[in-house]
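Action item from last week, closing it out:
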Amino acid sequence: MTGGGAADVLELLVARGETLAVAESLTGGMVAAELTGVPGASRAFRGSVTAYASEVKRGVLGVDAVLLAERGAVDAEVARQMAEGVRRLMGADWGVSTTGVAGPDPQDGQPVGTVHVAVAGPRGGVGGLRLSLDGDRAGIRSESVQAALRLLLGELIENVRAQDTEQRGGS
């Protein structure tokens, strides 16, 4: 494994016979593009939803309407529900999501560079990460993609450890 990129994620998923789906807002399909840029990605990658509008987050991914109305789209729980929603929608073992503010202006009371990424897995757990990024729009989006892939890789590795512990009797 190299530095936690798309190839590493896909290698682990293929080795385990598991699949992945992606829900993206501020990254606008960049996570999916990074994944599908890897030869053989179709062995593990099921698809993606670019849910830029809150109506799509709610209507397609099942994000709670009250949550969106009260907190806006740039929120950790919204990211969590997006990851769970795309996982369910695409019939994937894993779901990963991105939502945030790439700029140039603040959104939902959140400053530029505020990003939430989340991962939902087959064991029901959801991991999340809040980022405060500096830079221009392109840099924030690019760093968000890499953060989502790193978070996913970490969750995949942790999931393997948890399964190994269970098989060995919880030592």
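Closing note: The two ends are 27 Å apart (CA to CA).
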